[in-house]
Amino acid sequence: MNTAAVPNAAPAPLSADAPITDRSETTFRFLAEPTSVNFGGKVHGGALMKWMDETAYACAAVWSGRYCVTVSVGNIRFRRPILVGNLVELRARVVATGRTSMHLHISVHAGDPKSGVLQQTTDCLMVFVAVDEQGKPVPVPPFVPVTEEQKRLARYAMDVKDALDAIVELKPEEVAAGKV
User: Fold this and answer.
1) Is the pTM of this model over 0.90?
2) Which of 55, 63, 176, 178 is nearest to 129 (CA)?
3) Distance CA 39, CA 36 (A)
4) In a 3-state reduction of DSSP, which class is residue 137?
5) Among candidate residues 119, 107, 99, 115, the one with its CA nearest the CA of residue 153
6) End-to-end alpha-carbon separation of the chain, Å?
């Protein structure tokens, strides 16, 4: 198969035995364990953010074929708690790319594994940059939104990027310089 002609094919598969057909999306599923609980008896927000970062990293690394670093997390929204014993599903999708950056949308769904019904608990946008062995940014394959949903998510990611860039401009000089 000529991957150059296929939108969003990205680098060669990780293994000839188990090729990844859609390299722009990664899903993790597992049960929420008691070790992740906060004092209120729910999954700790910090644990959830760690899981989101790990899922997004896996997606970015598969997409770029490189080690990647988290640059920013934006517009995170906690809608409902995750309970110990819930089945947790994290889905990271590349929704836009720059020269060296990847914008990913991460959605989290959770619920009772016996019912099979999962509800959205959280979502956010994260930006990763692919780096070489010296930690210098390197180019990533372009993501081309094809479906209407992909196009909407790409616009959303760019709108959030613009909003975050505007917020950075509002920072007082001493905050931006790391003096506060």
Assistant:
1) no
2) 63
3) 10
4) strand
5) 107
6) 54
The Cα 77–Cα 19 span in angstroms is 33
pLDDT in tens, 116-138: 899 999 999 999 999 999 999 99
Give every strand in the sheet of 119-131, ordered side by side: 25-31, 87-97, 101-111, 119-131, 67-78
What is 19-176's CATH number?
A: 3.10.129.10
Question: How is residue 166 written in tokens?
Answer: 């505007």
Domain boundaries, the chain: 19-176
Contacts of 22 (CB under 8 A, 6+ apart): 8
Rounded Cα distance between 155 and 152, Å, is 5
Check: CB of residue 96 under 8 Å from CB of residue 160: no
Amino acid of residue 97: T
The answer to whether 98 and 127 have CB atoms below 8 angstroms apart is no
Q: What is the pLDDT of residues 101-113, one digit of tens each?
A: 999 999 999 999 9
